[in-house]
Each structure stands twice: as structure tokens, then as C-alpha cells.
């Protein structure tokens, strides 16, 4: 009865949502299918190894109930994991074939911005000085705006591949050689830690989890640049999918905030030129951020073997995980920026945006640049917030364990002291 209820619910859900599924993107579908094909191969090989290990443990577990239960768990988890991976491929195929173009009957949700018209100043000597300052600012705006916006758009559309760059790849090979040499030292130090943990009060390390962790770290370190390049390529695919679905980035508010070519001497108010200069300054800062992002991506790919080496050491696990999260955040910042730009362009209607230079369009462009500059810090705060929660939970758990242990010891002492032992009677 439960299975029938679940099947009916799923059927009703699919029937009710088939007409509102978004049209699938070909690039995303191809990328997902290729990734799932690789994951199926890896999962099949891993499942085979786990089945061999579980079968050997099952055969040699005669008279050992714990070993028998562990072998059964290993075999069951291996088969379930393989079924989940194969099920993901089946679900992906079904969803790709079920996507249809939506026919939404909703009205337009654009927000009409109220125009701001600056007042015209009176003539006189002050006006002459203002015209001179306006001419200087206008020269800066006309010479800097177009190159800056073109540079920002070029960084938004794609992120260069890491593996295809010979300089980055050669540097990575050098770091991999150093890391492989240090792995033997790390294994030796972990051995010392294992043998002296109980004596010196260090954190206990389970030997059955030590070798698989070191092996996984060694494998990840020697394939880290390919993992980093996969993250970059996945970001490029997502950006291409968004741009393909929204008609490109040529009509973005960044490029159409104002047209410096239409400025004429003495026609633009000084307040408008000041906001244009602010727009140019923010565009320079955003362009510097994109350049530093590329440097961070290259540096992270080169140093990634050392990060995975530190991940094998228990005390540096949190540092390595935060570094990996920070790297992924830096890569996917461009995707979030593209979504913000396309979303703002879609639902904000700026009056006089095309052909004329309105003050409200410049202010909207400045607000968009502020949002783009604030987005990376918000994403990093979310990363460190989750990491901080994990640390707080660990510390809280340790404190609770210490308090519980102290209370148990105190209660045991009190109970031992409260026991009245009978006195021995000495007979004369």
C-alpha cells in the first residue's frame, strides 16, 4: 500500500509539473552525461574492489561476529552505492527527455525606474569653471569607459582552461614532484603519531582509516590539476548555458548604463559626470578583481597537491577543506556575477537608457557594480560560516564529553565512599 501511494504521488507530481519544466540546455546535458559516464566507470571499479575486500573478510570471518558484520556492511554499501550512481544516470536521462519549453501566462515583472533630471545651473564665472572641470572629466569618461566595460565582458564570458596552459602545467608538475617526496615523510610522522598517541595524550588515529585516507590524498594530489580544470570547465558550461538562455550579455546594464560617445562639451551636467567617474572607478576595481581571480585560480591549481597532502594529516583537515571551498568559490564567482547581471537587465527598465544618458541609468549601473563587488565577500562569509559551525560543534562536543566524564568520575567516587564495608571481628 505504501509503495502504491508513493508511486501515485510521483506520477501526479510528474503529470502536474511536465508543462512547467524549463527547456533543457544542450551544453549542460552533454556535460552532465560525460561526467556521469566517468563516474559510472569509477564507481564500477571501486565497487569491484570493495566487493573483493568484503568477500575476503566474509570468508575469513569464521568465529568472528564483528568481522562478519563488517564484511556484510561493506558488501551492502558497495552494491547500494553502485545502484545510486546508476540511478543518477537513469534520472538524468529521464529528466533530459522530459524537459519542455514552458508556456507561462504571467505578466511582465519589470521594475520601471523613476527618471532623475538634474537642474541646470545659472551662468557666470562659476559656470565657466564648471565647464572646464566638466570637459576634463568628460575626457576621462570618453577614453576609459569603453575599454573597461569591454574588458569586464571578456572576463565574464569564459575562464581559461588550466590544463591547456603549459606554464601552469609545468609548475604543477614541479609541485607534484615535491609533494610525492613529502608523502613518505608524512606517512612516517603519522606512524610516530599512531604509536605515541596514547602515551603523550595526542588525538587517537584509527589505523583502518589511516591508509585509505593517505591513499586517497595521494591520488587526489597527483590528479589535482585535472580536478581543478573540471571545476573551471563546469563553471564555463554554466555561464554558457545562462548566456544562451538569456540572449547573451551584449544588452547588460554595465555596457548600456550610458554612452560616452554621445557626450558633448558643456551639455552634460557636472553631477552626471561625477557619477560617471564613480562608475569608471568601480569598473576599474571590478576589473582588478577579475585579474586577481585568474591569478588565484592558477595559484590554487599549482599548489593543490600540497593542499591534498595537508588533508592527509588529521590536524590540517579543516585548513585543507576551507582552502578547497575557497578555491571553488573563487571559480564560481563569475557564474554568480553573470546571473546577477542578466537578472538585473531582465527586470529593471531604465528610462532613456538607449541613445541618451540619464542619471538614473548611471546610478543603476553603479549599484550593479557595487553588487558584483560585494558578492564574493558574501560567498566567502557563507563558506567560513559553515566551517565555523563545524568547529563550534566539535568544541562543544569535546566540552560536553569532558563535563560528562568529570560528573561520572565524581559520582563513582561518591558511591565508592558511601559503601559501608563491614568491620572484621577479631576473635581472641
TrEMBL record:
A Pfam entry, by short name: T4SS_pilin
InterPro entries tied to this protein: T4SS_pilin (IPR043993)
Name this polypeptide is given: Conjugal transfer protein TrbL
Residue intervals passing through the bilayer: 38-59, 79-99, 171-194, 214-232, 238-258, 270-289, 295-314, 326-348, 354-373
Signal peptide: 1-22
Keyword Cell membrane: no
Keywords noted in UniProt: Membrane, Signal, Transmembrane, Transmembrane helix
Amino acid at each position: 500500500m505504501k509503495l502504491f501511494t508513493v508511486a501515485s504521488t510521483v506520477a501526479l507530481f510528474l503529470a502536474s509539473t511536465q508543462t512547467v519544466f524549463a527547456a533543457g540546455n544542450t551544453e549542460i546535458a552533454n556535460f552532465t552525461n560525460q561526467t556521469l559516464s566517468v563516474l559510472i566507470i569509477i564507481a564500477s571499479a571501486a565497487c569491484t574492489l570493495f566487493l573483493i575486500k568484503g568477500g575476503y573478510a566474509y570468508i575469513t570471518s569464521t568465529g568472528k561476529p564483528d568481522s562478519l558484520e563488517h564484511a556484510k556492511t561493506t558488501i551492502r554499501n558497495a552494491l547500494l552505492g553502485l545502484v545510486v550512481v546508476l540511478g543518477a544516470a537513469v534520472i538524468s536521462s529521464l529528466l533530459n527527455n522530459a524537459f519542455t519549453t514552458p508556456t507561462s501566462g504571467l505578466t511582465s515583472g519589470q521594475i520601471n525606474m523613476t527618471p532623475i533630471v538634474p537642474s541646470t545651473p545659472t551662468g557666470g564665472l562659476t559656470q565657466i569653471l564648471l565647464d572646464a572641470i566638466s570637459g576634463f572629466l568628460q575626457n576621462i569618461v570618453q577614453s576609459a569607459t569603453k575599454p573597461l566595460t569591454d574588458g569586464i565582458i571578456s572576463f565574464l564570458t569564459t575562464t581559461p582552461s588550466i590544463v591547456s596552459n603549459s606554464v601552469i602545467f609545468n609548475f604543477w608538475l614541479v609541485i607534484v614532484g615535491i609533494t610525492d617526496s613529502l608523502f613518505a615523510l608524512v606517512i612516517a610522522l603519522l606512524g610516530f603519531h599512531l604509536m605515541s598517541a596514547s602515551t603523550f595524550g595526542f588525538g587517537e588515529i584509527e589505523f583502518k582509516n589511516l591508509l585509505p585516507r593517505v591513499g586517497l590524498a595521494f591520488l587526489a594530489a597527483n590528479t589535482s590539476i585535472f580536478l581543478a580544470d573540471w571545476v573551471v570547465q563546469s563553471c564555463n558550461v554554466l555561464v554558457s548555458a545562462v548566456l544562451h538562455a538569456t540572449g547573451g550579455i551584449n544588452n547588460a546594464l554595465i555596457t548600456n548604463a550610458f554612452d560616452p560617445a554621445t557626450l558633448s562639451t558643456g551639455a552634460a551636467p557636472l553631477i552626471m559626470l561625477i557619477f560617471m567617474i564613480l562608475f569608471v572607478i568601480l569598473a576599474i576595481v571590478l576589473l582588478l578583481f577579475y585579474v586577481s581571480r585568474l591569478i588565484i585560480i592558477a595559484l590554487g591549481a599549482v599548489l593543490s597537491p600540497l593542499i591534498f597532502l595537508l588533508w592527509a594529516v588529521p590536524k590540517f583537515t579543516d585548513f585543507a577543506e576551507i582552502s578547497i571551498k575557497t578555491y571553488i568559490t573563487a571559480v564560481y564567482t563569475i557564474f554568480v556575477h553573470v546571473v546577477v547581471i542578466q537578472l538585473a537587465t531582465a527586470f529593471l527598465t531604465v528610462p532613456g537608457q538607449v541613445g541618451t544618458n540619464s542619471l538614473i541609468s548611471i546610478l543603476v549601473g553603479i549599484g550593479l557594480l557595487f553588487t558584483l563587488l560585494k558578492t564574493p565577500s558574501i560567498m566567502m562569509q557563507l563558506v567560513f560560516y559553515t566551517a565555523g559551525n563545524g568547529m563550534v560543534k566539535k568544541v562543544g562536543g569535546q566540552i560536553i564529553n569532558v563535563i560528562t566524564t568529570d560528573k561520572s568520575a565524581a559520582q563513582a567516587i561518591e558511591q565508592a565512599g558511601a559503601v559501608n564495608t563491614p568491620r572484621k571481628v577479631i576473635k581472641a
